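ping. complex inputs:
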Amino acid sequence: MSIHDDTSSSAMTGDPITTTKKKRSLPGNPDPDAEVIALSPTTLMATNRFVCEICNKGFQRDQNLQLHRRGHNLPWKLRQRSGKEVRKRVYICPELGCIHHQPNRALGDLTGIKKHFSRKHGEKKWKCEKCGKKYAVQSDWKAHLKTCGTKEYRCDCGTLFARKDSFITHRAFCDALAEESSRVVQMVPSLISAEEQQPKLQIVVAANDSPTPTSPPTPIIISAQIQIQGQELPAKNTGISSCLNGSSSMSSSNGNGTSMFANLFSSSSTMAGELQRQQQQQQQQQHTSFADLINAMARSERSMTNVEPISLCLSSSNGSSLQYAAPFQPALSATALLQKAAEMSAATTNASLLRGLGVSLSSNTSSGQQQHQQENVHWNRLMESEGSGGIGELIMGGGSSSMFGSKPTTLDFLGLGMGVGGGSGAAKGGFSALLNSIGDRLDVAAGTWGDGNYSEQRKS
Amino acid sequence: MDTSSLFSAKQTPFMIYSNQSQTNHISSTIRSSDLSDPFATGGKWASRLLRECAKAISDKEHTKIQHLLWMLNELASPYGDCDQKLASHFLQALFCKANESGNRCYKTLISVAEKNNSFDSARKVILMFQEVSPWTTFGHVASNGLILEALEGQTKLHIIDISNTFCTQWPTLLESLATRNDETPRLKLTVVVSVATEKAVMKEIGQRMEKFARLMGVPFEFHVVNGLSRLWDLTKEELGVTDDEAIAINCVGALRRVIVEERGAVVRMLSGLKPKIVTIVEEEADFTSLREDFVKCFEECLRFYTLFFEMLEESFELTSHEKLMLERESSRSIVRVLGCDGDVGFDECESREKGNQWSEKMKESFTPIAYSDDVLDDVKALLKRYRAGWSMIPAQGDDNGLYLRWKEEPVVWASAWKP
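pong. complex structure:
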């Protein structure tokens, strides 16, 4: 393959994975056995990954090559792909300072690395005539053309803006923003709901088998990967709720802790039918805030189902979005604005969303320790974006999102209101990651929560 | 128009524009028959009357002055059409000039304005103005574009903002920084303001900037320095300048407030800060070189504010409160320019200069930075969003910078400089 011919390329095979387990949220987490390919910028941009062996025409996608091959009218036998498995290849970014220049952050997809290279280090030669915005990748530009001028930006105060910069300026000066810092908790659901691009949220609620009447209601775990079986978890639960109560500034009025979660997931898209039954159960168990959650979810489901994928949540060009900006989600547009910002430069944003909101979260991602006993550690576990996810997955990014340095990331969830740049220097890009990751994939599963110990059984 | 026709019009001001003004008539009948005439024949009655009045003041023709002031007073209204508004605001200035009461009048106007100056009102006016007209946003986009280019790749940015824009220029810049390809830099924003501004609004603005920067994920520091009235005197220490920062200085509508004699010193002070870039935006008018010649200065002032008022009239809704606020602000400026004795009692002035005049001053310590195609494109895209009538044109020949034009007249000048 031509990619090997480049003199500046150095095919090296390494074991890029040094830690035992990597977060899935890191983009570029190649198979250790993969061959790492380094291409010069010129070669990279000139290279097509899939080359027809008959006419040498290159294609960016395998499917395209297959379609093309049919046109050659080959005998049946030859149409089959050659039996020998080509060794998996991963590609690094030619830009020296770039995070994806490191072999352990190589990307598995040639097209991916090309787009990355163009977007992050390339000239933006595609320009929208309407708004002047420039793109390095033609497909990004085309996607933008379809939506340019159709968006409207709505501020919480009700004002509509057709132009992003007016909206941004207004946003910074509007009282709605000033109020937001005192509404940290509400911001979180807004962020989730702000991500309409891929409304793949799924909420599964599993009832706790034997919740004790005196204990706080069943909190909910969100998991990106697994559905939690309630019965696998210890029956009692105090973890999250006590933790929540402990962090007073986060949720000032919720006595039982779950209302935050109700808020948190009030905008999830789909709901298992089972949910309704769960709702009944929960209500009978005087878990009113849980019921709130479900109601909220039910409400938001309506507004979520037929949302235009491209619109920011403040779009008023479609009816559903308007519902979206409904009063129970007052902070929506601020976050959409942020989302917009995050979409473009997630990797470099230095402050996490939650810190930006005055909340910090703690996530000890590299530690393999499972023996957390203290309440705040539950958050850490919850936040941990390793494997099965939890909120951490949500916040720190789903499978292919970027944003976290290769170093272990530590966010102090309980260190509320921490200033930007202060303290937890390692915390990076949580906000951006959140936004990206939600877009990438977000399955939210709610389950029961164990007492004291966070149970690893959930990973089953 | 000769004086006799003017005086024959004593009973009815409108007559002076009427061809039959020399005929004898009962004023009431003429009124009714000619009422529409001065307005129908192209309007602009205000500028004609005002010019007459300014000339009379210059010539010290007291009777004529009294007469014209009286007429203007009859016709003018700050709530009327464009002519009536011009008449109203310039009448005030001419009255001050004629009675040498300008300084007192100006002080009163300023203190009233300061009393009513709140964050809320300032915000509304500025943001609404930005919505309907590129008058201010033109400078923001032109300057921000070049500032971002000049600071590209730097990790510690310090923007010294000497402006009348109440930081409305910065949210979009913060957003651009947050979405920059490389590492998000630290930004220190030092805003140089007057005492009055500081008291009224800077606390609110600072809080908002900080919140917004946090939201955007830009490490941010905000400082306010009270020193607009002694700009030439500011030191590195006061401005919090440190050696490891990349500095940009942004001057929007601020240099014109520096007393004329100290402008060279201000340029030297700016140069001493060793900035990567200095951006200057000023309104295109010359109230400085002509200030000794009252009539010429008046003509220039009238020219400029006629454009401005017409622009406001076409941009805003008829009954816009924000428009009224902008007109009042203009009114104060007009009194300051025409009614006040230049050097008595004020640290600040309204002595605008044109782009080429500022360029001359800047060139003593700086060289111009050309606008990149990217920034020019951004400005063009910006202007497209507003109603017709706006265009931009790069300075020609020896001139530097970029002009915003309203109906082919240059009205705002933007430029960028490096040491």
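The radius of gyration of chain B is 23 Å.
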